[in-house]
Amino acid sequence: MQIIVYDNRFNANEWFVCILFIAGFAAVLLFPKRYSLKESLLYLLFGMFWAKFFDHTISIKPFDFYDVNDASSYQIMDFVSYLMFAPFAYLFVYLHDILRVKRRLLPIYVAAWSSISVGMEYFACKIGVYHYKNGYNLLYSLPLYFFTQSTLLWLVHRVRAAAPHPAGASAKKS
Amino acid sequence: MMTLATFIVLAWMISACFWMLPKHFSFADHMILWFANSMVIISFHTILTMGLGRISNSEDNALFVAFLLERSFIEPMLLLIFENIAADVRKAVWKACAAVGILAGFLVLKYLSVRLQLIAFVKFNYVYTAVMYGLILSFSHLVAYLLRRGGTHADHRI
C-alpha cells in the first residue's frame, strides 16, 4: 500500500482541527443547558459517527476520494478531526430549538447549515485538512450534508416522540 | 452479485431477529449504542486495513457494498441483539452463553467474508478475530451497562 505524505509538520491544518475542536466543545459546555446527558451524548455521537462513516467509506478503496490531514494513512489527528464534528451536531439541534424553527422552514434551516458546512470544508481544503483525489470536488459533499442534517432532524423528532422531553420547559427556566 | 445478495439476506435475517426480541432499552439508548459500537467497529477495521495492513478489503464495487453492509449494519445489529438478550436474562451463565453465541456469530460472519472474498487476511487469523470481537463485545456491554445505570438519572444536564 503506497502512502502519500502531504506534509509532516504541525501547521495550519492541525491548528484548524484543534481550534474547532476546543471551540466546539467549549460552546457545548458553556451554553445554557437544555438537554439530558443522554440526549446530549446522542447528538455528539451522531456528529462523530457520520463523519467517521463517510470518511471510512468514500475515502478508502475502491472509491478513495480524499485523504485527511498530513498523510493518506490513518493518524491520530484524523481521529481528532472526527471529534471536531461532534459539537456541530449538538449546536445544530441547539440552534434549531433556540430559534424554534417552524416545520415548513426546516428545509431552509438545513440548506443554511449545509451551505455553512460546505464553506467550512472549502476553507479546510485550502489549509490542507482534506486532499481531494480521483475527481472528487467540494459540491459532492453537499448532498452528504443534506442527508446527515435531515437525518439528525428526523432523529431529534423521533427521540422526542418516543420520550417527550421537557426541552422547552427547561429553556424557559434558563 | 451472489455475495451481495447473501449479505442482504443476512442483514434482513438479523433485522428480523432484532425486531422480534423484547427490547430493554429506549430508542435513544439503542441509537447511542449503535453509534458507539459502529464507531469502534469502523475504527478496528480501518486500523487493521489502512493502519497496519493486516487485512485487505475488496476493491470490487458490489463486494464493497457487501463489506459496508457487514461492517456498518450487521455487526452493530448483532451487538444490539446481544445487549437486549443480556438485559433480558438474569443469570450470569445465560449472559455468558449469549456472549459466546454472538461471538460465534461474528466468527461465522468473518469466515463468510473471507470465503466470499470480501476481505483477505494478510497477517491476521481467526484467533485474533475472536480476541478483537471479544474486546468490541466488552466495550458494547460497558456502554450498555452505563446506559442502564444512567437510565433513571437522565435529567443530569451537561
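Chain B touches chain A through 35 residues (CB under 8 Å).
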